[in-house]
Amino acid sequence: MYKVLLVDDERLELNTLKNYVDWNKMGIGTVYTANNGLQALETAQYKKPDIVFTDIRMPVMDGIEFARQLREKDKRVKIIFLTGYDEMDFIRQAFRLSATDYILKPFLVEDIERVVKGILTSLEQEQTADHSRIHAERKIIDNIFKEDTQQAEELIRQFFAMENGKEDQFHFSVIGLYGKSGNPPEKTFFQEFPEVFYYVELQDLNLLLLKTSVECRHVAESMAAYLYRNQLNLGVVYLEGQHRLTEAGQIRSRFEKAADAAFYLDSLTPISLSTLLKVEKCGELKEEERKKLHMLRKDITVQLSHGDSQLCFERLEDYLNICMEARPSIYKNSIIRLYNHINDELVIENEELAKQYPAMRFQGKTILQLAEEANNDSQIKEGLIQYLNVILAWYCSLQENANYRVVVYVEDYIENHYMEPISVEMIASEIGLSPNYVRSIFKNGNGMTIKNYLSEYRLDKACKLLKNTSAKVSRIAQMVGYDNVSYFCAIFQKRFGKTPNEWRRGL
């Protein structure tokens, strides 16, 4: 609804004007009053009325001077003068100040209603025209940032023809919001930040144009805090200075170039574009880094199965630090590989742990979904930590059972000594328990006998050596703990239906 300001030094006339006219019925939501021109000027500055009714003869500041100063500040406000027959000279001055209308005293309520209805019709027409113009201007600015230089030059000419402005007077600074967007900010966002007068939607990026009368960095800091409070994990990057539309293509290019580094931004801390452009992310990891990630994936999985949260998250930090040196696509792929490794080794075949899948989701999303959709690395990291914590909690609960620790010890012993002769008696002696008791605990906890588990572990290692090396079968048998190559070949064929050489040729 519209707002009206009534100005008169005569209290009776002011009260009559305020209380006897049904403003609400005409679409006026708020009525302000003032007793003189100076007071009215202060009220208008803060309340921004759409319509002003003002007397002419008043103390402190008369209506003519008030209207003159108001018009300098607000070209759109509608000003109606209340005047007597002997004040026509003042009325002529008023219309030179672009007064909208005048009403002679004494006036009737119907006179006020007639003038207001005419003004409201005019305001609605102006608003419609403004919306059309703003929509057209926004579309032109969008295209200026998206088109090539030659087309942009023509669009810039069109824009300033619509604005009736001069190019050298139109300056702006820029804030970029990085994230899975293409979506314009919400209406409440623009209410919070009136400094933003245009925005440009690009893929995974919104460019916000700001008035140069404000400190761009301070607005960016407030914006980052607002987005964080509203759980919008977007990177905030600012470009200070006074920029022109002729620089649009260059500005867009610079923000797009910084996109990889922006993925790793702390969403609560904005950064300048010039600083961000100095950060370079590699296109691929070095061989030694890939090997390190492979070892860390195995180590993280082991620490999870041991319920060791401290070592697990220390290894995870090492893993993420390596990933963060690369582009987001490599980072995401490395996270997926870690997730798949843990899932394959610990979760899929463990029915009890697999029941925890719903709790492993972060904000309803799996790690795979987060890696696909996340705006930044912090979202993926939060999801990964939640996933690992659920697995850790499950294994920690098992560790409260002494029998579980026996099972883990046997598995670790086999992993470290499978290439040597192993017997249940040897393992039981290490633990300090009887062999039969160790056999029983392991079978109940693991689901396999120690003999079968050892055999499966050795055969799995043998398959990897057959696949990845050219070593002879006799040598491979020794490397996995079998002195008798014939016995090794017999159990291999029984397990896989092929001799070791046949299995290797079938790859």
Query: Might you state the CATH topology name of the largest domain?
Result: Rossmann fold
Taken together, the total number of domains comes to 4
Overall strand count: 10
Distance between the termini: 77 Å
Name the strands of the widest sheet in spatial order: 2-1-3-4-5
> Residue-averaged pLDDT, rounded?
85
Structural class category: alpha/beta
Unreliable residue stretches: none
Query: Overall 3D geometry?
Result: elongated
Report the biggest beta sheet as strand number plus sense, adding barrel if it closes.
5 strands, parallel
Describe the oligomeric state of these chains in a short phrase.
single chain
Q: Give the class-level CATH name of the largest domain.
A: Alpha Beta
Structural description of this entry:
By secondary structure, this protein is of the alpha/beta class. Helices cover 60% and strands 12% of the residues. The chain folds into four domains: 2-126, 3-Layer(aba) Sandwich (Rossmann fold), CATH 3.40.50.2300; 171-276, 2-Layer Sandwich (Alpha-Beta Plaits); 287-398; 402-505, Homeodomain-like (Arc Repressor Mutant, subunit A), CATH 1.10.10. It has helices at 11-19, 37-47, 63-73, 88-96, 109-146, 149-163, 187-192, 216-229, 248-257, 259-262, 273-276, 287-305, 309-323, 328-347, 351-354, 357-360, 367-373, 377-399, 402-417, 424-431, 435-446, 450-468, 473-479, 485-496, 500-505, and strands spanning 2-7, 28-34, 51-55, 78-83, 101-104, 172-178, 196-202, 205-210, 235-243, 271-272. Helix 1 (11-19) links the parallel strand 1 and strand 2. Helix 5 (109-146) packs antiparallel against helix 6 and helix 19 packs across helix 21. The protein is elongated, with a radius of gyration of 38 Å.
